[in-house]
Amino acid sequence: MTSSRLDFCRQLAADAGRHAHRAFGSSVISLKGRHDEVTAMDREVEDLIRSRIAQAFPDDAVLGEEAGASRGLAEAAVVWVIDPIDGTANYARGIAHYAVSIGCVAGNQPLLCALYDPSHDRLYHAARGKGAWLSEGGGAARRLAVSTVSALDAATVEVGWSLRRPQADYLALLQRVMSAGCAFRRAGSGALGLADVAAGRTEGYCELHINSWDCAAGLLLVTEAGGRVNDFFRDDGLGHGNPVLATNAALGEALAAVIDMPLHTTP
Question: Which ranges in the chain belong to alpha helices (H)?
Answer without folding.
Answer: 2-21, 40-56, 88-93, 167-179, 190-198, 212-224, 237-240, 252-259
